[in-house]
Write a structure and sequence with these properties.
The chain is mainly beta. It is built from 1 helix and 8 strands. It has one domain: Beta Barrel (OB fold (Dihydrolipoamide Acetyltransferase, E2P)), CATH 2.40.50. Helix content is 5%, strand content 51%. Strands 1, 2, 3, 4, 5, 6, 7 and 8 form an 8-stranded mixed β-sheet that branches. Strand 6 and strand 7 form a beta hairpin. It is globular.
Length: 99
């Protein structure tokens, strides 16, 4: 299992990451490059080693709340405006262990 402190920009196909959602921002609507729109919210995911921003899209937003314990499988790290962010992506999976 990978800890949050081990995550670096550009990492892909990450091993399982486990953490607790500390907070979630209000969802906002964004325009997609492929056309259309989507809802996106930023959550703070924390474990014993560090914390990172977790980007949640559409249905994922309703899957978690502050205090939820989750795992992310096959995620990736991106860098937006100088800040690293953990993303589940198309091939990853967000699992809620404790709601």
């Amino acid at each position: 299992m990978t800890t949050i402190s081990q995550l670096r920009s550009g990492m892909t196909r990450l091993d399982t990451i486990e953490g607790t959602v500390e907070s979630i921002s209000e969802p906002r609507t964004v325009n997609l490059r492929t056309g259309g729109q989507a809802q996106v919210a930023d959550a703070i995911l924390k474990d014993d080693t560090a914390q990172i921003k977790l980007t949640l899209w559409d249905a994922q937003i309703k899957m978690v709340k502050a205090g939820s314990k989750v795992t992310i499988e096959n995620g990736y790290i991106s860098n937006f405006k100088g800040e690293n962010s953990l993303n589940v992506g198309k091939y990853g999976k967000l699992n809620v262990i404790e709601f």
